[in-house]
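Protein modeling request. Please complete all fields; requests missing the sequence field cannot be processed.
Requester role: graduate student
Desired output: 3D structure, C-alpha cell encoding
Chains: 1
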Amino acid sequence: MATLSEQLSRLYVKSSSLTKKRIQEELKTLEEKIVEYEGKIHELDVVKKTLEEKSVELASVKVRLESEQIEAQKQTDAFNEEYKKYLSSKEELEKLQAQIRASYSTEDISSFLNKMINDFNTSSASDTDVAKYIINNMDVDLKVRIYDDSKNNGEKSFKFTAPSISETTEDSLSSIKITIQAVPK
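Delivered output (185 residues):
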C-alpha cells in the first residue's frame, strides 16, 4: 500500500489535471462566448448602420413632407383666393342675370316709345304761336338690354346696360334718333 505522501502526491497530480482540464473547458466556453458576443456585436453594428440609414432616410422624408406641406398650403391659399373671385363673379353674374330677366322686351320698349311720341305730339308745351312741333320720325338702334331703373317713385325710367368705356366701340353704342317737325298752325 502506498504511503500517505504518495497518495497525496497522486491526489495533487489528479487534482491538478482536473483543474487544468476544467480551466481548458472554461477557456473553451469563454472562447465560444467571445465568438458568440462578437457575432452579436456584428449583428448590432449591422442594425446600428441600418438604423442610421433609416434615420437619414426619415430626415429626408420629413424635409420633403414639410416642403410638400408648404406647397400644399400655398396651393390651398391660391385656391381659396380663386374661389373668392369665383364667388364674387358668380354673385355679379347672378345680378346681371336678374337684370336680364327684369329687362324690357322689344314690345315693352316700342310701346313706351310710342306712348312718349303720342304724349309729345298731343302736348302743347312745345307749341308756339306759329307752329306746333311733333315727332315725325324715331329711329331706334339698341345694342344693349334695357331694364327698369325706377326708384319706386311711380315714374318709369329705363337704364341701358353698357360695356365698360374701354370696351365701347362705335358699333356697340345704342342710338335713338328723333326727327321733330314743325307743323304750321
